[in-house]
Write a structure and sequence with these properties.
The protein is mostly beta strands and 121 residues long. The protein has 1 helix and 8 strands; from the N terminus they run E-E-E-E-E-E-E-E-H. Helices cover 5% and strands 34% of the residues.
Length: 121
Amino acid sequence: MLSENEYDLHLRADTNNPKYRLWFYFCIRNAKPHQKVLFHIVNFSFKSKSLYADGMSPTVRSASRPRWERLHPKNVFYYKSQKKELKNQHVLSFVHVFTKPDEPVYFCYSYPFSYSHQQML
């Protein structure tokens, strides 16, 4: 936690390839209404090119917003880290404004789907 409204998040490496860290899914609870929070996924990728740099944005949902929706692209930033310990890594940062008190809010890399749905593809 950098402050009450700014957080550094670290992704665990993918199981079969420690070089890649793309997928994320997490939940935030106990936010205050109208609280604006900036999240930094500090070790997001080693790749300089990303769909996030071209306008893609993470998805969000909650009880009051039951369908997954993309965050507005103007609130999403993808850039090379300036920290020495994160040499050649890129950061994904995004801002979210919470609307309801104590409502769990879920964030995800992209639209998730279940294992059974994947079997139908």
